[in-house]
Amino acid sequence: MHDGSLTRTLERDWVRWSLIAWGLIALYYVINRWTGIHFLQLGDTDDNMRLMQVRAWLGGQGWYDLRQYRMNPPLGFNMHWSRIVDQPGKRQIDDPAPV
Question: What is the pTM assigned to this prediction?
Answer without folding.
Answer: 0.56
